[in-house]
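Researcher: I'd like a structural prediction for the single chain below. Treat it as a standalone chain; there are no partners to consider.
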Amino acid sequence: MSMVTSGTPVRVDAVVAGPEVLVPELLGVQARLTPGATALVHGGAVLTYAELHERADRLARYLIARGVGPEDLVAVGLRRSAELVVAFLAVLKAGAAYLPVDLDNPRDRLAHMLEDSRPALLVTSGGGAGLGAAAPVVLLDDPDTVRALEALPAHPVTDGERRTPLDADHPAYVIYTSGSTGRPKGVVVTHRALAAYLGDARALYPSAAGSALLHSSVAFDMTVTTLYAPLLHGGAVRIAALEEPGGQQASLLKVTPSHMALLDTLPDGAAPTGQLVVGGEQLLSEVVDTFRRRNPGVTVINEYGPTEAAVGCCVHVLAPEDPLTPGTAVPIGRPTSTTRLHVLDDLLRPVAPGTPGELYIAGTQLARGYLGRPALTAERFVADPYGPPGSRMYRTGDLVREGDDGVLEYLGRLDGQIKIRGYRVELGEIETALLRHPDVGRAAVTVHREPSGEVHLVAYAVPAAGIDVLDERLLRAHLARTLPDYMVPTAFLTLDALPLNANGKLDTAALPRPKFTARTAYRAPETPEQELLCSLFAQFTQAPKVGVDDDFFALGGTSLGAAQVVGRARRHGLRLSLQDVLEHRTVLRLTTNDSRPPHHPTH
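Model: Treating it as a single chain, here is the predicted structure.
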């Protein structure tokens, strides 16, 4: 395939896979090749390829008996565990698509996703039974379910057992992303797109033949790489926290740049031995340089791709000996083998090398579109004038520039979408949620960037008529009921009016800069654990005094600072993860059992 940018195609080595083979069959082939090899490790539990697939095939038959098949959606609400992997494989084997449900998201948000997606079934355990889904619930830990599964055959599921034969255009999974209209939207990824991505992953990430660490949220499509690439390679998937990988050092690890900061604070065993794949945010050369000092033999791969293009459609490989340019971002590279990338102007004409333009993605990895949103699908997935008749391309909204060597550089966004801690965020969704509060008359949410590249969300609110003062704590709590923690702004500023330019649009340059200071009444720590964390919060935000209610990021904390807090806390015996700090943000929430589930290696 080729990349169309300035009008001159750039050849890319293709992975020749022969006739189209879908992921359930590919997984089955590997299981037959290495039945006794370790496929999955979770704590003290170890599953071989044969054992993993026998459990998945039994559950697939159970789902088929419940009427599930191609074009159906099955919600999976489980913590990272062996049961989660079995459930994902079972849904694919049944021919349906899975919707990963992150149980740590606000209940209102989960309820919206389940109402919007209308799954045929919800597969969960007793801990997720209270999600309130209208769909029938399958409780995997229910004794009746366990007995029913044990009675089913364990040989591979075939097309003859499925409701209809599995086709490449059938959905494989749905991932919800932030939506500019105020509600998240589900991206429908087909079996063809998933197989195309994993075909490239098998070629690009040979270290998956060893082991990979599955550590991130299951609702983040970053996990597709570290789950399926090893299982197609004969490798092992190790389920654990990044801070407590346990056992053997992974050969393949996929992280966001925020995670890379944490790796620098952890023992050497946390880093991979072969390849580190980085995605989700812009990658700065300084971050790679810091990682290389401790891990000089590891290859770093910058993988770019929106959810609408099956995980990653553009890669840039940095071998250990490849030089870095200080003060720059690492390029996003070249397209994967079945992807075509176009850099176009406003009239959809290719721009010359060196000229910024909007990136459009075409090829096999494109998603079907947005679940139940035909208008939005038509708006973002448009006709491809450079491809075969009837082909489409996805309008990314990303500004890029092609170098003379055909390598792409990421320059920023053309709209209100950003990436924060690896997650895609539409500023419009936060603004809409803020406007739902009766005290808010007008609102705007912008991005404040630190020199290091760290991103902070800042909310500006104008009180509604009759309201004199806005209470930041109430606004923060209001947003936290419907938005995940990474979408709750770091700072809230109250204005008499939003500044407008001559065209009547928001004048972002005239908005006051936020001051990151404690915005709650000081409450002193009460335990040695709280005293230690308050001290670390102060040290890594440079705040003169930190109470248990103070928000780490509202104090000016960064992801790197959060990683340093975690590293220091763990040296003092506190079992804390980076995700804990990113999500819970205050010392009180980090140390109160009612506010934070007990920390487990897989949570």
